[in-house]
Amino acid sequence: MKNTFDELVETFAILRGPNGCPWDKKQTHESLIKNMREEAEELVAAIEKKDVDNMKEELGDVLLQVLLHAQIAKEEGFFTIDDVIQGLYDKLHRRHPHVFGDHAKAATPEEALAVWKEMKKKEKGK
Fold first, then answer.
1. How far apart (Å, rounded) are the C-alpha atoms in residues 22 and 17?
2. Could you tell me the end-to-end alpha-carbon distance of the chain, in angstroms, rounded to an integer?
3. 90-98 average pLDDT score
4. What DSSP state is assigned to residue 70?
5. Could you give the CA distance from residue 120 to residue 126 in angstroms, rounded to a whole number?
6. For residues 33-46, b (16+ Cβ closer than 10 Å) or e, as one string?
7. Which whole number is the average pLDDT over 31-43?
8. Residue 49: CB atoms within 10 Å
9. pLDDT confidence of 126, banded at 50, 70, 90?
């Protein structure tokens, strides 16, 4: 049986809860900056080496950082992982009107990137 994303999210609530891990409970967004950089660099190294097994592990470590930051933000009343997911979903749909909207189809990766940049510019200009 494989665990679900929701079970993984709950794991972080438990780790930072009253009976959780002292290290996890002590962390802040600021204290985790070094960890996020290291994990991203380790993922890049695995990609560059084409080490698929290590990539899987390092992607998990980057996800750990994302979920830990989201849990801290939830505790602080700022946002939840669901808000992060919704924001990403919305951004992907806004910036891909050639896929999800009525914009002309992008025939090449370069055209798709140009549409992305155009949509991003429009968003930032609001």
1. 9
2. 46
3. 92
4. H
5. 10
6. eeebeebeebbeeb
7. 98
8. 10
9. low
Per-residue tokens: 25: 């409970």
What is the tens place of the pLDDT at every residue in 48-65? 999 999 999 999 999 999
* Contacts of residue 47, Cβ cutoff 8 Å, sequence gap at least 6: 55
How far CA 19 is from CA of 16, 22, 91, 105, 114, in Å, comes to: 8, 9, 37, 53, 50
Question: For 76-95, b where at least 16 C-beta lie within 10 A, e where not — what string?
Answer: eeeeebeeeeeeeeeeeeeb
| C-beta atoms surrounding 14 within 10 Å | 13
Distance, in Å, from the CA atom of 9 to the CA atom of 26, rounded to the nearest integer, reads 18
Considering the entire predicted model, what is its pTM?
A: 0.90
